[in-house]
Amino acid sequence: DSGVTQTPKHLITATGQRVTLRCSPRSGDLSVYWYQQSLDQGLQFLIQYYNGEERAKGNILERFSAQQFPDLHSELNLSSLELGDSALYFCASSPTGGSGSSYEQYFGPGTRLTVT
Amino acid sequence: AQSVTQPDIHITVSEGASLELRCNYSYGATPYLFWYVQSPGQGLQLLLKYFSGDTLVQGIKGFEAEFKRSQSSFNLRKPSVHWSDAAEYFCAVGFEGMEYGNKLVFGAGTILRVKS
Asked: Which of A55-59, B83-87, B107-111 is the least confident region?
């Protein structure tokens, strides 16, 4: 158990809908990352938040957005869903520290999204 | 651009045999290096990490990895594979620089099959 929690575990929804995925980081971690994993694209970095502020952005679609709240939990919002958005979505968190430790990411169990 | 290459998509080894999974990166300086393991339907678990110092690092589950600067490689090894090691293995690299945040760039993964 990494200490990172994600809800829900599974989500099935229809095209055009909007969903929200939730992540709680490990205790004390200020950074939260979101990743999408699919068979054809592999593991893709979407976005990073650090203490409530966006820190880095990856291949995140405009239909997707995220935020990190004062209690440090994060939500990933996916809207106007398409079949191709079906994937595993992972959240990770990392500690604050010098040199490499701030890159040391701990992953949650993921949310499996199926768009029908 | 910074990149991470895992040249082997699949590897099959016999139980009890030794294992080496390859990872190469493209970066001008020494990055932060990680190996993760993912069992089917599960999140990613951190196996080991390299930040600096001794180039041979030990991790969990009997794995080790060696950083070779001259080859820009960080190969994962295990002297004797167990059937429970069957999983997908990801090499990940953290590159310093504000534009990257603390994100990790992942290789495409290597699926390990263990035959009895």
From this structure: A55-59
Question: Which residues of chain A does B44 touch, with a Cβ-Cβ cutoff of 8 Å?
Answer: 43, 90, 92, 107
CA distance A24 to A70: 12
Region B23-28 average pLDDT: 87
Q: How do A111-115 and A10-13 pair as beta strands?
A: parallel
Contact B102 A48 (CB under 8 A): yes
Residue range B87-91: mean pLDDT, rounded: 97
3-state SS, residue A61? coil
Task: Determine, for residues B101 and A100 on separate chains, whether the beta-carbon distance falls below 8 Å.
Answer: no
Cα–Cα distances in angstroms (integers) from residue B41 to residues A20, A59, A113, B47, in the given order: 20, 23, 12, 17
Residue written as tokens 């794995």?
B63
Phi, psi of A36 (to 5 degrees): -115, 135
Looking at the complex, report in whole angstroms how far the Cα of residue B94 sits from the nearest Cα belonging to chain A. 6
Mean pLDDT of chain B: 92
Q: Rounded to whole angstroms, how far apart are CA atoms B19 and A48? A: 34
